[in-house]
Amino acid sequence: xxxxxxxxxxxxxxxxxxxxxxxxxxxxxxxxxxxxxxxxxxxxxxxxxxxxxxxxxxxxxxxxxxxxxxxxxxxxxxxxxxxxxxxxxxxxxxxxxxxxxxxxxxxxxxxxxxxxxxxxx
Length: 121
Known about the structure:
- With 121 residues, this protein is α+β, with helices and mostly antiparallel strands.
- It has a single domain, classed as RRM (RNA recognition motif) domain (Alpha-Beta Plaits, 2-Layer Sandwich), CATH 3.30.70.330.
- It has three helices and seven strands; from the N terminus they run E-E-H-E-H-E-E-H-E-E.
- A hairpin with a 2-residue loop joins strand 1 (15-18) and strand 2 (21-24).
């Protein structure tokens, strides 16, 4: 069964290969919409010692629920190699999490960062 975020190659924009680079043209409208979506997203990196077992997405969400009990709805998506994307319903919730800085989810810590160029918007 396909997930809602699974895409077929035919759904992707056409690509242009120039030398060893691949370029994909998107419209300004699509670019602006994706940039708006990014205003409520953070990325986090879980650091741990080699002896620690990897943290599952479900376990991470349960641990963070205690820290973020006052926030609205949020979700987490694994990106691989200890990196996760966090999506919030509001910019204010995202800013609250970013302001916390590092969170200690023993025996691991999570550092957050965002790609948004302007958090004051």
